[in-house]
Design a protein that fits this description.
It contains 9 helices and 14 strands. The protein is of the alpha/beta class and 380 residues long. The strands form 4 sheets. An 8-stranded mixed sheet has the order 1-4-8-5-11-12-13-14, with helices on both faces. A two-stranded antiparallel sheet has the order 2-3. A two-stranded parallel sheet has the order 6-7. Helix 1 crosses helix 2, helix 3 runs antiparallel to helix 4 and helix 4 crosses helix 6.
Length: 380
């Protein structure tokens, strides 16, 4: 049954703007960007000594709306409603949760669809390239603005997990504990390849127009195909076999044309169409490139092997069916952190849903995260 209006956790999207010219933020590329706006949401209450902060970092196409509802009538909760909220693993009765939309996105934070103050038009492909480190640098400015100097714990899956690791490397003095989920220290050639095929689908759409499509039709078909490609990598052979198999969609015989016979074809087309309705094509180009650039092992030096990380408690989680970021990549994270002297717990969860398993209900993951946060909170 749906929640009663009185039981809903209500949240409000907020905005923080900084790096006003001439004090623009210097990016990894050397470009300067400003002003920058980050959309963010908070849940729970910050305690007196500001020691109960939990920072949540979202995945590639996510946003700041991690949990709760915008109004009593709202029927669409945040993207991690199963994990965050009163009496849930990330218990907002106890913890002050912060989640911001990443730099370069299109969900309230500054990105390629934002207005360039120098031209009065959307940035388009004039938007500078951003990295995971740039995203974390911007988040640090937000926490400074909120007066937060210590993060009890931070967690995120996929690209969110990359941000968790980057936070630990760049601002270890602020981090008490961290939970990187279904993530990696660097993209494999396979992961980069899938992202590049998705980008080419967008850039090959005639409506992309070199990224400057905001005054006319956008590259909807290319973006839909890009999402279909990405969505396949989020699933697993077992989950697709169980859900779809070779079932036909609304027909009893083959059509002998290209309208789409199989249920899995219909599903992917539906996912592509939904994505077009909510996301910007250029933002996907920039975010996937940032994920490809992410590399904590560049030039043979693993940045996780660092004495400055020794005090941080880690819980690393992977899933058996995740072939985008397989368990061996999580084990590599664990190995590097142990060399740093960090207290590291690791769990590979048996799940059939593929990479997206971290977004699905999981009693085992719930217990792991709730127990870990409870222990950390008593130590803070």
């Amino acid at each position: 049954m749906p929640d009663k209006p009185s039981s809903k956790l209500l949240v409000e999207k907020q905005y923080f703007t900084f790096a006003e010219p001439p004090d623009e933020m210097v990016l990894d590329s050397g470009a300067r960007l400003g002003p920058i706006t980050l959309a963010y949401e908070t849940l729970g209450t910050l305690n007196k000594d500001r020691s109960n902060v939990v920072l949540i970092l979202h995945a590639c196409s996510g946003d700041s709306h991690v949990a709760g509802y915008y109004s009593a009538e709202d029927q669409r909760p945040g993207w991690w409603e199963v994990m965050v909220g009163p009496d849930k693993p990330v218990d907002t009765n106890r913890y002050f949760v912060v989640c911001s939309n990443i730099l370069g996105s299109c969900m309230g934070s500054t990105g390629p669809s934002s207005i360039n103050p120098k031209t009065g038009r959307p940035y388009g492909f004039d938007f500078p390239m951003v990295t995971i480190k740039d995203m974390v640098r911007a988040q640090k400015r937000l926490l400074d603005h909120l007066g937060i100097t210590k993060i009890m714990s931070m967690l995120g899956g996929s690209v969110g997990g990359m941000q968790v690791l980057r936070w630990c490397v760049d601002y270890p003095e602020m981090v008490v504990s961290a939970i990187p989920i279904a993530t990696t220290t660097r993209h494999s050639a396979q992961a980069i390849a899938f992202n590049e095929v998705a980008r080419q689908a967008i850039m090959s759409d005639p409506n992309w127009r070199g990224g400057n499509y905001y005054d006319g039709p956008g590259p909807d078909h290319g973006l839909a195909v890009a999402r279909m490609i990405g969505h396949v990598t989020y699933l697993s052979d077992e989950s697709m076999r169980e859900k779809f198999g070779r079932k036909l969609q609304n027909r009893s015989t083959l059509s002998y044309d290209f309208t789409g016979d199989f249920a899995v074809e219909s599903y992917l087309r539906h996912q592509g169409a939904k994505f077009v309705a909510r996301f910007d094509a250029n933002a996907l180009l920039y975010i996937t490139k940032a994920a490809d650039y992410f590399d904590l092992e560049r030039d043979g030096a693993n940045l996780l092997v660092n004495d400055a990380l020794a005090h941080i408690r880690f819980l690393v989680i992977s899933f058996t069916s995740d072939w985008l970021y397989p368990t061996y990549q999580s084990r590599a994270i664990v190995s590097a952190l142990k060399k740093s002297g960090s207290n590291v717990s690791f769990c590979e969860i048996d799940a059939r849903w593929g990479h997206d398993a971290f977004l699905m209900p999981s009693e085992q993951m719930d217990k792991l995260i709730a127990g870990f946060l409870d222990r950390i909170s008593h130590e803070c």
